[in-house]
Amino acid sequence: MLGDDIMNMQAMLCVDIMNIQAMLDVYIMSMQTMLDVDNMSMQTMVGVNIMSMLTMLGVDIMSMLAVLDVHIMSMQTMLDVDNMTMQTMLGVDNMSMLTMLGVDIMSMLKLQRKWLARWLVMLMIGIGTALVATIIEICIEYITEYKFLALKKLFDFCRTYSCLAVPLLAWVAFNALVVAAGSALVTYVAPQAAGSGIPQIKCYLNGVKIPGLLSIKTLAAKMFGVILSVGGGLACGKEGPMIHSGSIVAAGISQGRSKLCNKDFKVFEYFRSDNERRDFVSGGAAAGVSAAFGAPIGGVLFTLEEGASFWNQSLTWRIVFASMLATFAVNLLLSAVHGHPSDLSNPGLISFGRFPDISYQAIELPIFLLMGVVGGFSGAFFNAINYRLTVFRHKYICPKRWLMVLEAMLVAAISALLGFVMIFFVHDCRDNLDDEHYETRIQVFCPDGQYNAMGDIFFKSPEASLVSMLHEPADAFQATTLITLVIPYFLLACWTYGLSVSSGVFIPSLLIGAVWGRLIGLGFLQIVPSMGNNIGKYALIGAACQLGGTVRMTISLTVILVECTGDIKFGLPIMLCLMLAKWVGDFFNKGLYDMHIYMMGIPILPWDAPEMSYTVFASEIMNSPSTCLHQVETAKRIVEVLREHPHQGYPVIEPCEGSQEIMGDKAYGRCKGLILNSQLGVLLKHKVFDQVSPKPVLDISHFRDVHTSYTMINSSGKRKNDIQLTDEEMKYTIDLTPYMNPAPYQVTQHASLPRIFRLFRGLGLRHLLVVNEKHEVAGMITRKDLAKYRETQQGGSVRMRELSIQEY
């Protein structure tokens, strides 16, 4: 029977292959098994390929697959062949094969282009952040160099002619005027450029939009503001603002347009969604840390620990790429500026330098842990003082902008005055060595050939002073010099953070910790002289503990310090000390950034819901009654809603039996969807009325390019000349159904606060509908409604409280 020709057998039997299978109640694979042949042998016996055989049988390939209830990929698996073999068997070309596989070649190319564009944007972010960092560093270098050289000449001249009041006045005047310029730039041009910007970026990555935070105007004010702040002698650093600057660079590049210049470059339009922009801002923040400290891995961990609330695996590698590129670009640019482009010896704006011969012994670990406790206490004290200063500032100074500039000038003048007084009264003289800081060292009252150690600290940038604390030998500074320095500088740093200037707290905190770390090291070496005289390790641990106790960072700060020193040996003690400093500081108050977020009243959501919130339900949290719209609304009512109730989103309802009308315009009904404020503005702007023919056709680009929500429509229906409606058009209707979100996230009235919290935190929601058992809109929950529930831990006690929300 096997020797007969199968096709002749079919003709004799007058049946086709499908009938044979039906009669035998077997499939092709079962038939093959009975015949004990493979796929190709089966075709050879038949004498045709699959496509010819199906043509003879009058069967279409797609119809056959539908009958057999299999997909082409499943058939390929059953036949155990690769793509090319399958294609040969079917007798089709590449395009036909893709069509049979259900692949849209244009969609595939679009996805590939979008994937490649993400990497291109990250590359541009790394290079752009490096350029910003290089400009800031070069400008600060030149300003501080010429400033201190001029002051040194004045000191040397007046030392001979007894006119030391002249350098004092010059120092105070220069600091005050330079800082006044920087403060005015921030206060009057871009208020969002004040401070380090880290709390605001943290809020943005948490899902909170802050107007003006990521604009080009803010970037310019940030750059020049931090140059003038550091050049003006304030107790601040440039490293913190680099995180904000990198985020602005990322936001600008990824959107492919400039709102300030009103210019759209028509590139990267598919990245103009909130989640895509947030991912790029995460990369920009990491690139900023990397450019500042030369720590790419630390930058990624900083973004993950302190900033990003939404993270995915594919984002990690792109952020590492941007961070690595930022470090390399800064290294290349700064090395070229310094005259040795092939050396690549400037991985970041600051380098702690190498510790080639540094080590520690087991007996020193308890000392390091004690320093962690000291760092926790010191950081908590710093935050407590800064909190009270900030509250006073918001109450009495911030209402008048000229007072904010005047305060910054006052702090700059006092900084110069305190520096002069400490130089004048502390007689710590050291032999003057011919090194890189030789030209700016001042003699004051020291003998010839020596310099004033306190003057050496103040006549350098804060970064250079930090490096001196880490690497100078044990006898470079007397204990009285360090004690005299640490207390005034601590208070100056407390006063400076929060001024209306661009400034960071990283370097001042590190410098304060390095100073008291050297003091502890000097005391320990006096008790145990056999431990040697390498005091840099105590300064390093002290610097880490002070910064950790202030900002409460652990993982990322450990990696940043290890990368900055280039030595993994101190990874364990640094990590243990940072954990201890955080625990001690958390016992008394919040971290500095969290404290300022709290005082700004930004509705940021923490990692977890309050522990004691399981008895709080949606019916207690929601805003009710909620402003609702019907599926078909008049233009007049939409304009009234936008003007009188400028919320970000509105439920769309369908009136049903038993619904109530509350306060005239607040209606209950069956939930049909949710529409945003900005979408309503677009519909009015393009006049998508049901009575207009032909009706305008809108696509996603019309809604994606809306920069702001339409909340400022006046009584005539106009907003900055964007929307103009006649009295007749105000009577027209708009069908909201095609434009609303028909499946918004919603919960019942009995949902608990932790469950609602997880929805907001995990999905980045801004609105959540609350419905009753009839699926009618009962209310609306926003981020503010969740953020008002705060869990406080202080002095060992834990409690939850509900804050009041006040509209300004």
Descriptors for this entry?
16 strands; 3-stranded mixed β-sheet; 808 residues; single chain; 8% strand; elongated; mainly alpha
Structural write-up:
Its main location: membrane. Belongs to the chloride channel (TC 2.A.49) family. The chain crosses the membrane at residues 48-68, 119-144, 164-190, 280-303, 315-337, 358-382, 402-426, 479-499, 505-528. With 808 residues, the protein is mainly alpha-helical. It is built from 33 helices and 16 strands. The protein has a three-stranded mixed sheet. Strand 13 and strand 14 form a beta hairpin. Helix 15 crosses helix 16 and helix 22 packs antiparallel against helix 23 (506-527). It is elongated and about 95 Å long.
Spans where pLDDT lies below 50 across 5 or more residues: 9-15, 20-28, 65-71, 660-667, 708-721
Structural class: mainly alpha
Strand tally: 16
How large is the share of residues in beta strands? 5-15%
Largest sheet, spatial ordering of strands? 5-7-10
Q: If you compute it from the alpha carbons, what radius of gyration comes out, rounded to the nearest whole angstrom? A: 35 Å
Overall form:
elongated
Integer average pLDDT: 82
Helix content: 55-70%
Give the biggest sheet: 3 strands, mixed
C-alpha termini separation? 93 Å
How many helix segments? Answer: 33
Short recap of the structure:
This protein is mostly helical.
